[in-house]
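ok so I'm stuck.
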Amino acid sequence: MNDNLKITPRENLRHFFVSLAIIFIALTIITGIILTLLYSKALLILPTDVSDSIPRIVSDDLFIILAVLLLSSGLTAWVLMRTSVKNRQVKKCLELDEHILRAVNDLIYVHDTEGKCIYASEANRRNNGRARDESNGYRTLYEELVKPRLRGLKEAGDTTFETIYAGVNQSPVPVEVFCKVIESSRQSFVLSIMHDITERKRNEEELKQSSERLRKAMNGTINSMAYIAEARDPYTAGHQQRVARLATAIARELNISEEQIEGIRVAGILHDIGKISVPAEILSKPGCLRKNEFNLVKDHSEVGYSLLKAIDFAQPVAQIVLQHHERMDGSGYPNGLTGDKIMVEARIMGIADVIESMSSHRPYRPAYNIDKALLEIVMQKGILYDAEIVDACVRLFNEKGFTFN
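replied:
not stuck anymore, here's the structure
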């Protein structure tokens, strides 16, 4: 029991002495009456010399009589005090429970397993305007919400679920219902607590709409950034979008998480954003690039990383962009990473980038057909490219019918 509900020692002592005084006085009066009656009767039936000696005998034993009365009063007062303490504690608990139940806005019901309502909280009447004895409404609640789940409820002990509920003459509202089986010595009962979650659902919907607006704004920003890079190089227009499509398809083929797939999609759209630092005449040069020109092009991974690292993406987009030209044997750039040191998202992006680039027209060469592009990555499987990712990419084109169109 909560310490705040216990009876204090001072209250116990006061109650004990009050009870003791009352009982002692009562017993003294009763004893006095009995002795008076006995003395009166003795005067009538006993000889004079004997009857005259009775008051002296009684006065001689008066101390003993009072001691017996006091002891009897004390024992009786102690028993009454303990009983009273328990009764007052129970009363306090019941009063507190009643105040709590009256203050709670949740609807609380107790049904027996036949559907009869044993208890309905005050909130039921306050919120719905029903009388406590409106058993039809309570039975309807039992039949609609509790009974269909009763078997599983008995096995599990309790359950929580959300539903739409319309009480008697009430509009449907979303509610969360907690049900628990209560076992007594003779019978089982079902406690049901129904909580109105209209406000929570409204907040969830507003949050969902806000998140959707933010997602659309983010996608618009990402696409605009990609357009800036592609606008400077007309030969690669749409390249980043196509790489993103293939990379996400490969990722799904590998059954990686949706969160990683979203990171791959965003990184795919932005993977060449760093090319805005490369002079346009180099990007559109029809012949082979000189070493210093190629070094400028190679810098686009680090430039892209520098542009994106300050943006708080939910996924490691900047790192994927930085590593998408790394190769398994360490021959890639900018950091010469090898094997598993390269993020799986970047490994996927690298293969998608190679396939799309080879199958698209460039100023220095015509487009290759997709079979030749696939042959290139198959020949370098396990050397430049992750073998499992290569196999997934080949399956997409040869078995799943993937196309860039």
